[in-house]
Amino acid sequence: MGSWLSKQVEPTSAHYTYLILSVFLLSYSFFSEFIRNRLHLSEPPLALLTGVIFGPHALNIINPASWHWQDTVTQEAARIIVSLQVFSVGVELPKAYFSRHWKSVGMMLVPVMTFSWLVTAAFVYGIMGTTWSVALIISACLAPTDPVLAAAVLQPGTRFSSRVPRRLRHMLSAESGTNDGTSFPFLYAGLLMHSGTSTGAIIRDWFTGTILWQCTLGILVGLILGHYANRSLRIAERRDWIDPSSFLAFYILLALLSVGIGSTLGLDDFLVAFGAGTGFAWDGWFANKTKATHLPQILDLLLNSSMFVYFGAIIPWKNFVPRDITPMITPGKLTGLLVLVLLFRRIPAVLALKPLIPDIRTYREALFCGHFGPMGLGGLFLVIEARARLETGESIPMPHPPKHHPNLEAIEQVWPIVCFVLMGSTIVHGCSVAAISLGGHMMRNKEERAPLLAAEDEGLEGMIHEGGGGESEPSVSGDED
């Protein structure tokens, strides 16, 4: 009987993964209201912890290495999920958002992001002992805020999101949707500097290849694609060519089309996807049609949580200790770097520029926006992109990190440093809502506290909330002004 049963049962690592992942998602779904609005936790840190616990360095049940997956799988999975998320951000923003708030988003993208890039590079250079060019590459992977982590906390429907003025939620969402794409100029500046070419060639290649072709053309292609997709879908709906299920599927398929066009033409995938989402929903028509479906939240739960479980399973723990090729990487230095990055990567710049950012009206709001710059799956894609460029000079990585290579030291430094900071940011920012809510609860007088722990629902102290949530525009892009 035992022999017969053993022939029928097939407990492979992949099959265990299906089981564990589905159980995790079902469990989270059952208690999602309690977890989000009572414990104030989001999916990413819980999914990451699940991947770590069941990963190869703990229980060894989820082991992607046993599936013979290569680095290209990680790269493409991150590309698709982040692109879907930035496309979703573009769709969910209020209609014609950038026509009114371009200055605020522009300040967050250019001076704040440049500051975070240079400051993080200085920390990496000083603490981890890398070359300056490698430090710039690493800091470029950590410069953007992650749309997946941002959506997990800022999405409508949670108690905490209702306590933050909508203008801040919209600004942070818009920033997270765009700065994954705008991080490419920073990444390629570091890569070109590391290549050792002349200064003139670096500037020429960076401006023509990165700024003009990848970024500028990428956003234009996305906006045009989204605009004409909107017009085409309107015609199809008006003439009854499309049924309701295909109408919803159009959302996902357009996002995938934008990724396909961007990656095939060598454009900035994330800017193409964000531009497509923005152009597609510029007038608010599609969001108004689909706002009751909660499609972005469903995608968040299924795809983003699955990717964080995967990330937890591939964290390179053995590379967090000194090795012959990377003697300066130690757990203590990595932890110190993480603390400095979380404290000084954005907060000083946002506080200093607060008078120039119209949507930030108090210094408490500036502190919140400066802190809330999570690093996650966007950084995972960028670090694979950086490794690919260091390994092959192209965007396609080797199947696995090489054992002998002229850039071996840089390759071995980039991967563990970025992964450690991404892991730390996922945990810290994923638990920030709980910390803010609990801290606010405990600082109140006993008679002012909510009956349940950290269950306050009024606006956060020190922020301006009057005027319909702190801004004069619709809560979703489909609402009318």
- Give me the number of helical elements: 20
Tell me about the largest β-sheet.
none
Uncertain segments = 468-472, 474-481
Mean pLDDT over all positions? 86
How many whole angstroms does the radius of gyration measure? 22 Å
Helical/strand content category: mainly alpha
**What fraction, in percent, of the residue positions are helical?**
55-70%
Task: Please give a handful of descriptors for the protein shown.
mainly alpha; 20 helices; disordered C terminus
Q: How does this structure look, described?
A:
This protein has 481 residues and is mainly α. It has 20 helices and no strands. The protein starts with a helix and ends in a 38-residue tail after the last helix.
